[in-house]
């Protein structure tokens, strides 16, 4: 498993990598290269319920450019990482439709999905670089560049 994503998620190097689309994974590596160490791991700890999964999708011109599915074990530690497979990835006529399909796929293959976070690439880059993550998320939402579904209570409170 590539080091950038292992460090960003604080994944145990022995954690499972499941059926990752290599193009999406490579794009995710590029996106996370400049991310602050631990930011993604902190988000998983804070917003993904134990025994559930989260799905993140990054869109570039209405196509899914990168994705990440993180499954968390019952103790709250990331247990596996994956990407969204081809058929769901190609649903991208619009972000909302693709987001709904991705969450359905995660629920069918990884169990409960406690967080769905779908953002356009420009706002994903801005979010990773921002010191105030909540403001960056609100900006993406206000511009129509964000779909959040499902939204865990902790995230709803943080964004209120």
Describe this structure in words.
With 160 residues, this protein is of the alpha/beta class. It contains 8 helices and 6 strands; from the N terminus they run αβααβββααβααβα. The protein has helices spanning 3-9, 22-32, 39-47, 86-89, 95-110, 121-129, 133-142, 153-159; strands spanning 16-18, 53-60, 63-72, 78-82, 113-120, 146-148. A 6-stranded mixed β-sheet has the order 1-4-3-2-5-6. A hairpin with a 2-residue loop joins strand 2 (53-60) and strand 3.
Please give the largest β-sheet. 6 strands, mixed
The overall pLDDT, averaged over residues, is: 85
The unreliable regions are none
Helices and strands, in order, run as: HEHHEEEHHEHHEH
The order of strands across the largest sheet is: 1-4-3-2-5-6
Helix vs. strand class? alpha/beta
Distance between the termini: 36 Å
- Rg is 14 Å
Tally the helices.
8
Q: Strand fraction band?
A: 15-25%
Global shape: globular
Tell me roughly what share of residues is in helical segments. Answer: 40-55%
How many DSSP-defined strands? 6
């Amino acid at each position: 498993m590539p080091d950038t994503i292992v460090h960003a998620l604080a994944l145990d190097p022995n954690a499972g990598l499941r059926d990752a689309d290599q193009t999406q994974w490579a794009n995710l590596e590029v996106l996370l290269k400049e991310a602050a160490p631990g930011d993604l791991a902190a988000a998983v700890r804070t917003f993904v319920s134990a025994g559930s999964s989260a799905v993140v999708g990054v869109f570039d011109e209405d196509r899914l450019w990168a994705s990440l599915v993180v499954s968390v074990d019952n103790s709250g530690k990331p247990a596996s990482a994956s990407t969204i497979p081809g058929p769901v990835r190609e649903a991208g006529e619009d972000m909302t439709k693709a987001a709904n399909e991705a969450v359905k796929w995660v629920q069918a293959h990884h169990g409960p999905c406690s967080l769905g976070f779908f953002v356009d690439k420009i706002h994903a880059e801005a979010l990773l670089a921002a010191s105030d993550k909540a403001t960056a998320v609100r900006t993406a939402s206000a511009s129509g560049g964000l779909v959040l579904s499902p939204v865990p209570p902790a995230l709803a409170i943080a964004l209120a």
